[in-house]
Amino acid sequence: MQTPSTVRNLLGKKLAPDEACPALLLNTMLVFRTERRRAQADELIRPLRSALGAGSADAQLSALILAGMLESALADAGCPAATHAAAVTDALAMQATASVPPQLDLERLLEQVPASQEIAYSAPEGFAFYDVHPLQYAAAVNNFPRQVREARSAAVIGIRSIGTTLGAAVAAGLIQRGVSVERASVRPGGHPYDRRMRFSPGELHWIERRRSTGAAFVVVDEGPGRSGSTFLSVGEALLAEGIARDRILLVCSVEPDVARLCAPDGARRWRRFACCVVPPRHRDWENGAEPWGGGQWRRELIREKNRWPPSWTQFESKKFAQRKRRTLIKFAGLGPFGRMASERAQALACSGFFPSPQWLGDGYLAYNFIHGEPAATHDLCPEILERMAEYLAFRSRAFISAGSTHLTEEMVAVNCGEELGETWSVPGLSLEKPVLVDGRMHPHEWIRTATGWQKVDGVDHGEDHFFPGPSDIAWDLAGAMIEWKMPPSAREYLLRRYQALTGDDARARLPGWMLAYAAFRMGFSRMAAEAMAGTEEQARLQNSYLGYRSIVLQLAGLRAA
User: Fold this and answer.
1) What is the DSSP string of 440-462?
2) 411 in the same domain as 347
3) What domain count does the chain have?
4) Distance CA 517, CA 480 (A)
5) pTM of the prediction?
6) 505-531 burial code (b ≥16 CB/10 A, e <16)
7) Count of alpha carbons within 13 angstroms of residue 252, beta-carbon side
8) Which among 147, 20, 39, 170 has a CA at the least distance from the CA of 93?
9) Nearest to 163, CA basis, from 230, 211, 209
10) Rounded-to-integer distance, Cα 454 and Cα 403, Å
11) Region 388-409: what's the mean pLDDT?
């Protein structure tokens, strides 16, 4: 990983006004996790085979997503069997987009993939968190510029990892329009704000062969994210190989705020390319439903505006309200990710901590509204502390998950060093109760009802792409103490009751996890405030950042400058 000073040297050059990078460009705090799971290929092959054997639309989508994940992981490993996985991905994309049964023996193709092949993979964020739907990418072909839509041939380049599945969907959409398509995938490298694409000799040969036929080049990914540099790296590498600019199309899931892209000279570079933004998917149940994402839920549930919690609206999960049915509908994840989230929601509901869920399919869960009002810090009392202890004891039993601490320790060192100007040596964080944490122990996530306290929003944050990921239950204990501003007596009560229910005495390891929690929230709030500059949300996030910074200073035994 590059150090903060290296990033400043790389990106901190003086730019012309039209090229100006926002202040967040210099924020090098760690907020997003980048850990990839290391396993054998069979870890993806087994659920893929299971999905192929089921007949539902959700199973079909799961198979497509898992095939793309397998293809991406094999390609990253340089395994020749990636071509067999790619054939499976393409066949499933055609089946999903055109209802065409696979013309290939998919099981035989999978048999060509060594089950013991070592791979590394992570959840494709768009499928797991943000409702980036492959079927929409296939349908978006109808919105492509005419020179691409009506081309005789096209070269579809998916950016790994999610670009394998999305690229296959785009290829399927083009094939249905009579376009001759070849598909490939690439993996740019370098710093997230300044990616570089260096094609391999095989990739260069493939590009030249397609260029000589006059093919249009379609670059496919989710995003663009905060920098846009991943897309730009591939588009500019194609230009360097002699592909005409009007033969290159970038296909993405969101309309970028070009002026705020973090890549060096990002605005000017992005404007050089044609871009197609894939429209969001519409489900029948959305008719009459109110969008509650992007912090809109606060208008209905928290009357006093000065009590609204801050929101980095870009990263909130999609959610909707159906008032007549008294139902909240929330995106839980496509394919296998939605299935796992649904199982967690059911477990929480069966244990009495959570509203009853209903799986709607295609990535969404519906919950019955809880009659009550979100709590505030002044509601702290023995009753809610008892309920928290019971809840965290349940999670420590029900959601055991392999975790690690090395990335979290690095996050604390980087965030504290970046913010406080110190060289930080973080003592090792003890991982004694590894679980899928809740991650949202804030007061407003607890509702007082006629029958007691219920927890909301506890299904998915432990597996999102922010810190900490699967971690020690002490992360949630620390989060509860910090977010509720608990005095020492309340902290001791919570720890004592949790220990009585689990036998786990977390006192010795709690100080390190409190610092880790505060360091993450400090970095998150600062980065979010900079990203939301010029909006009403900026002030809330800035105040939040200052509050967490004060806690970090207190925990570190330092004084504010």
Assistant:
1) ---GGGEEEETTEEEE-S-SSGG
2) no
3) 3
4) 10
5) 0.91
6) ebeebbebbbbbbbbbbbbbbbbbbbb
7) 19
8) 170
9) 230
10) 27
11) 94
